Amino acid sequence: MSKSVKIALAGNPNSGKTTLFNALTGSEQYVGNWPGVTVEKKDGILAGHKEVIIQDLPGIYSLSPYSIEEKVSRRFLVEEGPDAILNIVDGTNIERNLYFSTQLAELGLPMVMAVNMMDVVKKNGDKIDFEKIAKSLRCEVVGISALKNEGGMEAAEKVVEMAKKSVVEKGPGKLPDVPHVFSGSVEHAIAHIEESIQGKVPLRSIRWYAIKVFERDREIIKKLDIGVGEMKHIEEHIRDCEKELGDDAESIITSQRYEFIKKLMDKSLALNENRKGKATLSDKIDKFVTHRILALPIFILSLCAMWFLAVAENGPGTVLTDWANDGFLADGWHLPFTTHECREEGKYKGMEFEDAQGEFAKAEATVAAWEAGEKKASIEDEETGEIAEEWDIDEAAYNAAKEFEEPDPGQFGVWVPGLGALITDALDRAGVNDTVKSLVVDGAWGGVATVLGFVPVIFIVFLFLAFLEDCGYMARVAFIMDRLLRRFGLSGKSFIPMLVGKGCGVPAVMAARAIENERARRMTVILATFVPCGAKTVIIAMFAALFFREQWYVAAMMDVVGIAIIILGGIALKKTRFFAGEASSFVLELPAYHMPTVSGVWHHTWNRLKGYILKAGLVIFPACVFLWFIMHFDWSLNLLADEEIEKSILHDLGSWIAWIFEPLGFGSWQGAAASVSAEIAKEQATATLKLVTVGMEGVSSGAHIQNFFAALGDFPKLAALSFMMFNLFVPPCMVAIAVTFREMGSQKWGWFAIGFQLFVGYVLALSVYRLGVLFAGGGFGIWTAVAILADLFCLWMIFRPSKQ
Amino acid sequence: MKLVELKEGERARIVRVSGEEAVKRHLGALGFVAGTIVRVVGESYGNMILAVHESRIAVNDATAQDVEVANV
Predict the structure, then answer these.
(1) Alpha carbon of B54: minimum distance to chain A alpha carbons (Å)
(2) CA A415 → CA A47, A97, A343, A411, distances in Å?
(3) A5-169 placed in CATH 3.40.50.300
(4) Which residues of A fall within a CB distance of 8 Å from B20?
(5) Least CA distance to A292: which residue of chain B?
(6) Is the ipTM above a cut-off of 0.95?
(7) How confident is the model at residue A377 (pLDDT cuts 50, 70, 90)?
């Protein structure tokens, strides 16, 4: 078969659509670049049917344009036109679900309705007459249970069969048999409209278009380009109906659809009388979860659980991160449960591998220090660059240390080489020169490995959120938080993007799509990335260790500052003319609580995580190669040694823009280079800083950085704080910026978002440094005045009365 | 009577939905049309969880203000 068959999978949110899609397509899915929840259209190959493509539409309630999802779905259904529709319907809430089904049926495409959750329907003691529904809606109806993987494939095969038959028999041009659900006068008006739009639309969907014209759907009327006279005539018919039925056209259509469904349900649905009106288990849980007083503590408790899992010391997140950074991506790792003390004779006998490594590192440091003529040797902490241990050395110690050989990991258990080691080995074996090796190992792989090193933490955050979303709790969080967030111009649904933002800003910005209110959605996109993400946590950790040992609260304060910016920024933006107006409504379906499936949570997590990993490959890789290049070469393309970094292209580029950072207290080429390179990926700020301060005095890279800030002026701690805050609160990394532009919908709005973020980050760093210097007795300068004026401007933006 | 005036556990029939056009349309799709019976499952600071057909819909007080109901 040469031509592929396209089947659209459509249904309400929470109808089990994603579960069915995953079951039908297995692993053969094609998702857009940056998937949000189920916001984007996903394509997949039907398992066992290579020629059939299943197209997963977002879960929606109607084909009227309400949310982005509805607009995307209906445009796809009426314009691109799949060959057939597989409509999934929640059998436990069939009346409401059929509202959407009646609209789908009017499109005139072959359709199979899969009534899901039949296991629950049966358990509840309810009965549904499929035949009557099928006859009434002119489609095939089958019962399935997506969760138990029953009947889904049969439903899919049936719809494929119908799609193929309809191509052979009818062709798309014939008037199809669609249900007529409205009362006499409305049907009469629709018939008239059908007449006047004939030839302008595909015949099979003419009824759907006619109803939309009756509803005065602006988008459709504009598209059909109906003549003025004709439209006047149509308008008369609509007005007659409105007068007769005492309601507006759109409400008439909605009500009559529900009336039609009610009549159909009266004869085809037998509900178990004992169950009617009783509180369900979900209702009982909600008594606690949405309780006036208990709601917030319960929510905070669940957040604490997430933080324990992801970032607590010795929690699963940190254990996995260590494994990824030190083992999987670096030299290698021992298989769990195979490790043992060294049994071979020699210096390491009886030692654990880590102790042996420590001994060897100390021996190496002793040798290096003695040969450099020092009297003391030291080793530094890899992450912070701090001196971890220091000891005196003499010739005897030097001679003893020279005897040490690198411990062989194979003597301590079953050793699995890491990716870093494999790459280095391969390059050694290929005999490439040192420059190429440095490019590959330090430049390309180094950058990619740093990004991949965050995967465990981000994975756990996303896994936890996917679980909360899939079990139904997140909908409650949106409901609980709405009251609070509304005051800042946001919606309760803005909270989910911000939580995702703690892991990574890119899926966070994507997740904002679920917010229908355009103003609240744009505001969420602008503000969500102020939550310090996984990469920014690296910057915070390093600065906290190097400069704020005694001020333990500085690290935690950064999260608080992020939240404060969101609140105050929200208040200020809401008062501008761009975001003025009341986002007054909140409407959200709360799905019944249920235990999520492993595969569901996995797909959900993976869809978000995949974006993050792709970013490492597609963006970080080339960017790091470029950065390595300008760091290691001068303008005549001579290769430079590490110490010669002051001759590099990077040095000159940094020098040209250093004046921008002068008011912030770090106006040197190093500060500029580190801040700009942080736009590749935020953690690059720390990596670049380590590299560009090589020329500084000091025995460790941490000391280099400390001395770098000390050399900047009299207030190194303030300069360090300013540098850190600047990098945390200016626009996010370039991938997140690209997504922000896309989600803001236009260049103008994109620049607005980036401009706002730049302003906030710059003013914050400026104020922290200049006002800090003022209070520390460093005097008043022109920039102090600018900082005060900027702050007064911000305060005015926040506290001025709103125009209403 | 406004929907927002109902107390937890009370039932009422929807008479009319007013307010912003897009929201009204969305509420309609969820089953908030004249004649539908709603039950208040939970209430917190004027925000409500409602049983409509077999689903639970959360609305805030502003939205509950816009729904006119009558006793059953």
Answers:
(1) 5
(2) 39, 56, 15, 9
(3) yes
(4) 584-585
(5) B44
(6) yes
(7) confident
